[in-house]
Amino acid sequence: MSAASVLVATPQSMHFAEALPLRSGASIRAYDLSYETYGELNADKSNAVLICHALNASHHVAGVYVDERGEVIPKSEGWWDSMIGPDKPVDTKRFFVIGVNNLGSCFGSTGPMQINPDTNEIYGADFPVVTVQDWVSAQARLLDALGIQTLAAVMGGSLGGMQALAWTLQYPERVRHAVVVASAPNLTAENIAFNEVARRAIVTDPDFHGGHFYQHGVLPKRGLRIARMIGHITYLSDDVMNEKFGRQLRRAVTETATEGAPFRYTTQDIEFEIESYLRYQGDKFSEYFDANTYLLITRALDYFDPASAFGGNLSRALAQATAKFLLVSFTTDWRFSPARSREIVKALLDNQRDVSYAEIDAPHGHDAFLLDDDRYMGVVRSYFQSKVAA
Amino acid sequence: MSAASVLVATPQSMHFAEALPLRSGASIRAYDLSYETYGELNADKSNAVLICHALNASHHVAGVYVDERGEVIPKSEGWWDSMIGPDKPVDTKRFFVIGVNNLGSCFGSTGPMQINPDTNEIYGADFPVVTVQDWVSAQARLLDALGIQTLAAVMGGSLGGMQALAWTLQYPERVRHAVVVASAPNLTAENIAFNEVARRAIVTDPDFHGGHFYQHGVLPKRGLRIARMIGHITYLSDDVMNEKFGRQLRRAVTETATEGAPFRYTTQDIEFEIESYLRYQGDKFSEYFDANTYLLITRALDYFDPASAFGGNLSRALAQATAKFLLVSFTTDWRFSPARSREIVKALLDNQRDVSYAEIDAPHGHDAFLLDDDRYMGVVRSYFQSKVAA
């Protein structure tokens, strides 16, 4: 396919020489942020939309990559390509959209896989613990460097939605609109529990070496696989799993089955399609994701809790926010259920803020925020057309 | 404490010299079953109640153990001691109650930790795959040996409930009542997915050695810990986790916290109480549970599906059952939700069977079936008094 008709993305990098103080008390001396932009910044720099990513995503939000001959690289679409692009709900003909890879991630921004300038060794487990607030601070510096004072909107799903919410609290004067999708004001005990099991799987993998596996020439793939499998279960709904996989046996199983004995009767080999799917997801993930990044990002999720500084009172916490809000949740999302979004809506209404809220009836669970659902896309499109662009 | 006033349990063992043919086509040449009995078998042998256990339990259902001086051993209560005993819902003054450890388990009955008589080596991963139906066949032989033709009731929770249901299909003429608590007619894709992640954690532990770790003098504790942590999350409800742990920080964390920095900012150490709790559960479990047994029992769960031989039609499958039924489910159980129990109720009603059903409003999730809830205990007590003893 020729790239003429599609949005072509070009990753960029920005260096920051000034140390970034972190919430933990530590700081990052110098760092780089990978980012991409789509569309054109207008003359008064009022049409910028910042997209914040979730656990395993990156700055490559929209568009495709092309090879040296100008041909589109297959499957190189950005992770929110259904949402962002020309004539899409977040229309890049109208908005200047910025995707940025967070500090501590593993897709180009400074993170555990890179050299610690203080020691000239790979950071590994020594990379400082970063929080949602730290990411927002780093993103704000990127906007400074791009000459953008005020965002038309900040937007994200899941952990990205937490960053959007944090923006409205840390830099209320710099955000006109916040779009918070499939998110929550903090993690529940169950959310933390799933994160903790995933972290234990990684940390107790003998190839983890206390987080300094890079020097040993190994990767804790076993742990990463388990972490991803656990995560994946929580991203899907019970319904969509039953619909897609149910109790369906893997083809190889049904082909070799003898009459009256539908199974292979094995504890270690695959019997059911769902097993095959999960193993594939785990294997794929373990090939490209950094184990220390997984620990850092799940911890950032655990720590996020804007209400904690206000005795647990979310309404008081959100009093600082002056942006207008769109919140979206999905009925079958049991990771960040609609009730969690409604907590945010209520706290904003308690402060007489301008809030739109859509609860989308979608079967896909938490993953729905990444999918191309008509009603969901329609709600975001309307919001950007009627409110953000107004 | 003296044992005079309490029910004292005495584990027994029964040897079976005749090979047991298994569903898989394999067979177990000879085997032992550990069991316990409470109360007295009446003259016409009509008051026997068989209790079937779930994933990690055993034949030690009720009562306590005493040491050689006759003193009660602390914390030696059976796993369903709140349910079974003198004057308890299943009253051992009236009923002769039998607990039996299933084949393939690790509490005395023949299983992967024992010697394979064919090879004189520890079974390990070579222990044949067993199904719920195989367990029922083995339990039936134990009843034969005890001279019991007909059970007043067969009863179990979770996987134990599946065995109770299977009893009514395999030996309809031998069961007067079936009490099926917090169970399901089969696993959903999500249930299988959680089992599969747990199994992968065990199998990919380098200390697993393909299931022959006994010869290597190691135990795959890392994998068992992860498996148990995952399981534990699914046993509890989101609500009860929030109530018990919420976002509460571990005491050590709050004590060392500095003003404005409530956390220790660490990815590998414990911050939240829920993490501490899960790690403790995982550690404890990995000390006593056999890894091959975990694989076998989760597979038995995966395979159970009485409707599959009837084109997925549960009503047709349950037409074979002639017992009277009590089904109990718990509102916050998301592992085997009330809807799954209602599927069984509906299928039995389609066959004009005598069915009682109680949906207990309890906050504890799947674990509720093991807890001492007044309404739950009351329902079982009434059923045994008014129906089973009638």
Automatic annotation (TrEMBL), chains A, B:
Keywords: Acyltransferase, Amino-acid biosynthesis, Cytoplasm, Methionine biosynthesis, Transferase. It holds the Pfam family Abhydrolase_1. Its EC number is 2.3.1.46. Residues 47-371 form the AB hydrolase-1 domain. The record marks 335 as: Important for acyl-CoA specificity. Its main location: cytoplasm. The active site is at 158 (nucleophile), 333, 366. Transmembrane segments: none annotated. It catalyses: L-homoserine + succinyl-CoA = O-succinyl-L-homoserine + CoA. Substrate binds at residues 228, 367. The keyword Amino-acid biosynthesis applies. Pathway: Amino-acid biosynthesis; L-methionine biosynthesis via de novo pathway; O-succinyl-L-homoserine from L-homoserine: step 1/1. InterPro entries: AB_hydrolase_1, AB_hydrolase_fold, HAT_MetX-like. PANTHER family: HOMOSERINE O-ACETYLTRANSFERASE. Transfers a succinyl group from succinyl-CoA to L-homoserine, forming succinyl-L-homoserine. Belongs to the AB hydrolase superfamily. MetX family. This is Homoserine O-succinyltransferase. It comes from Polaromonas jejuensis.
